[in-house]
Design brief:
Aste57867_8892 protein, 10-stranded antiparallel beta sheet, 5-stranded antiparallel beta sheet, alpha+beta, Lipocalin, 17 helices, globular
Length: 654
Amino acid sequence: MSSGSSDCVMEFSKYCRCDSIFESKYLRYDAHTELGISDARGGDGRTHRAGGTKVLRCFPHCCPSHVFNSVCGTSIVTRVSGPRVEHSITYLRFEASYEQQLHVGDEIDEASVLSNVRRQTHCIGEWIASHYDVYDENTTTRVCEFSPKAQSTLGWHYRWVGGSARQQRRAMHYLRAYAFERVGHGQLRVLSTVQSTPFIVMSYRRACKACQRQTPEDMAATDLQCECEGIYRMQQQGGEASTAAMDTGDGSQPEDEPTPSSQGQRVVAASPGLDEMEKMLATFYYVVATFPATFLDHHVHPIDAFFRRSSLLASCPPILPPFLHHGGRHQVATGSQYAPTLDAIAVLLTTAVQLLPATQALLATHAATLLHKPDLEQTYARLVHQLVADFNQALRPLHTTFSSVVQAMLAYCHDHHTLSASAAVLLKCHEFHPTRAFESFVAQMRETFMVQYIAIETPPHVPHQNSLSHPSAGSWHFRETQSVAVHDVSGGPSILSLLRACTMGVAFRLALHASSFFIQSQLSASHWSEFILDHRPRVLRVFPNGETTMSCVSDAMHGDYVGHVDVHSAIKMTLFFWPASPTSPSRVAYIVQLHFALADARVAQLQVHVTAAPEAAGPPRDYWGMDVTQRVALLDRTNEQPVLDCHVVYDRVI
């Protein structure tokens, strides 16, 4: 699925591990009246509503799995390589087989393109612009990503409208990508182009039950076969669906005859055992991201000792225990059968924190593989194998393995399935798909790539307090936690939340210049994290410990914030955490308010106030499809409940 001029080559690519990019048939439905679940709502499924927005469902494919009660689909990635692509511009356009396509060397007026670009206020625009692109000088390759939610929260809109004419009803369709270069007199010249495999489009309300895929039961039923009429009938051949042969009008091959390009788009087979290792790592992640820190009880002491030792804080009071001793529900007796499992979890968590610098170094070494999918997949597999090997090595003194510990975690969840945390872990493990982990890895690689290859503003070196004008600038180390109040009866912050806070807040450096506030953790080899303090909703690109905010492996979407400096030079920030998707079991937003102020020249105090705000009544919201201003504006604080309050003291390091 690649083509181009003699010196430029273009292709559709993907960073998920699904089998293929495009399907052979898509349903077109009205996003305002159907959303793919019209029957469940009691509606009649009509798509003739005036002003209705017709979008393609499941385009280009369901990733990582089908979504039943919201827009289903994923982003599209293009790669164009060649000596003239550094300043190229890439656009997508849906085209029917009978429509005139552009060829390499053709020129069009750039103004006509810009006047018809798809955006939030013009979701039926003909041309689709990328929302993310990067150029690699070493490989002379430009990679562009196109997200439907960058142009519309409703999904991939297809401007084509069917008709009664035979040509329209029987037409095949393509998504074509065009790489342009600017030439004189406001013209764009086609450098390279690539098209998807052909597909057919039909009305959602005319589709059969098997194709509508309204419920999980429909997907699970093995006896459901396509019963659509005529040319829309899907045929099962070799386990894959294809449309019946039809008149495409352009001489293209039938969809059930795979072309060499469509065969080449499949992902390289995973290494032996990779899938199982991914599941093991995901299970461990879900346990520590879901269970409250009280679950570990006194088993947390080795982790606490590591934090104090690595931060040169051996003489300071314990960091983690104050957050555990408040009568949480999930404390496990030392003599229970699961005490060895808790010991092993503590070892794994300590190892994971110890590995942060090495993991970041591995990603930095292979950052350029982001632009070459096979190499990127190899880097991912190497990281997964290395993590499992390191975990097994760390567990040897306990005479166990990572696999055994994971099985013990699952056994605990099954034995205590009435606990909300256990039920949540089992559900997440059941719904896990390797694509989620891989997408999270790609998001982290993007952050690493940007740091290495793209100029990102960072503050000057801050060796002393007077380097910058703001009195808080400098290095700060944890002294003590003066008070902790956990109001959440479920047990307080999760294990992962507490560890994440430690990797960011035990020892750090601060800098302020212009309207930006920079913070850098001293526990990992991370780069500066920038907060803009202007009272406006913003999105944080990366946490101070180097962790990207642009991925959702679990059920939380994070990165939104509002910050400012008050009249007393105190730094005030509010962080927001949202349900990751409309299908997330928890419909609660979390708000973290931070207040960092000087007590004197060498002592600072941090006040943390965490609350939970249940989502307002109504259909589940798709926060991922909104911008930060929309998300913050929708926050319903009517039933907001306190979760945690704490007061931490820091000493300036000279």
